[in-house]
UniProtKB/TrEMBL annotation:
Keywords: Nucleotidyltransferase, Transferase. The gene is galU. It catalyses: alpha-D-glucose 1-phosphate + UTP + H(+) = UDP-alpha-D-glucose + diphosphate. Residues 7-273 form the Nucleotidyl transferase domain. This is UTP--glucose-1-phosphate uridylyltransferase. It comes from Microbacterium arthrosphaerae. The lineage of its organism: Bacteria, Bacillati, Actinomycetota, Actinomycetes, Micrococcales.
Length: 295
């Protein structure tokens, strides 16, 4: 496939019930990870991969997300007047990352339904789906590899990661066949949140996909599956089973991923990212060691 610009879709309409009461009035995507909201890391990842057109799927009470990526002249002017150039730079970064659009999901009916809401905006473009619960470390390559594989094959591309069997029931899981590509597998089947004993492998789908617009036709006729929701996994399963189509391939990711969808993992993500920062790590790392020694 020739190189064409792709768009990104970030589903952000979930209720964030695992983080109540913090998410009673604040979107879970706006929970801070050190000093940036989680969704900003995802937008930055898209921008670093060369994507400058991003659609965020939002729900009720999610206006804080659009506000965050908008300019705030009164704040910017105050920082200018104070000569606080470092904070001004960081504020401006969030509104200059990409051309960001928003559409409402309405009734939340699952990830597949959220992706389907992007149909009008995406049009004939290929697009990346990026879940805000999964943060990929900026030092590790994933999305650019997935885009390149999609351009090479025309296939749907999913990100896969080896997962401990005791956690496999939390993910969509892939049956795979080896290929000649390093770290690339052909996906022959997918199952959503299987029991450990029923899982076809330990390769779980994490929150990155690169898809062609043909997936919308499948999603439009996909019946609600597990949990009464329209599952993107079911549409991908149909693509994988089509003998005449380009199929589904997986890029196996072995880098640093931070899961912010779970309270314990969210805290771990903050600790790990803060410890690695040049401005925070030197003060934090000795304290971590002292704290751990006293547990």
């Amino acid at each position: 496939m020739p190189h064409t610009p792709i768009k990104a879709v970030i589903p952000a309409a979930g209720l964030g019930t695992r983080f109540l009461p913090a998410t009673k009035a604040m979107p879970k995507e706006m929970l801070p990870v050190v000093d940036k909201p989680a969704i900003q890391y995802v937008v930055e990842e898209a921008a670093q991969a060369g994507i400058d057109d991003i659609l965020v799927i939002i729900g009720r009470n999610k206006n804080a997300i659009s506000n965050h990526f908008d300019s705030v002249p009164e704040l910017e002017d105050k920082l200018k007047d104070k000569g606080d150039t470092d904070r001004l730079r960081r504020v401006l970064e969030s509104s200059d990352l990409a051309d960001i659009h928003f559409v409402r999901q309405g009734e939340p009916k699952g990830l597949g339904h959220a992706v389907l809401r992007a149909k009008a905006h995406v049009g004939d473009s290929s697009f990346a789906v990026m879940l805000g619960d999964d943060l990929i470390d900026e030092r590790d390559e994933l999305l650019t590899t997935m885009i390149a594989e999609h351009e090479r094959t025309g296939a749907a591309i999913v990100a896969l990661m080896e997962v401990d069997p005791e956690h496999i029931h939390l993910y969509g899981v892939a049956s795979v066949e080896s290929t000649d590509g390093d770290g690339v597998v052909k996906v022959s089947g997918l199952v959503e949140k299987p029991k450990a004993e029923d899982a076809p492998s330990n390769l779980a789908i994490i929150g990155r996909y690169v898809l062609s617009p043909s997936v919308f036709e499948i999603l439009e006729r996909t019946e609600p599956g597990k949990g009464g929701e329209i599952q993107l996994t079911d549409a991908l399963q149909e693509l994988a089973a089509d003998p005449d189509g380009p199929g589904v391939y997986g890029v196996v990711f072995r880098g640093r991923r931070y899961d912010t969808g779970d309270r314990v993992d969210y805290i771990k993500a903050i600790v790990q990212l803060a410890a690695d920062r040049d401005d925070l790590g030197p003060a934090l790392r000795p304290w971590f060691k002292e704290f751990a020694a006293n547990l």
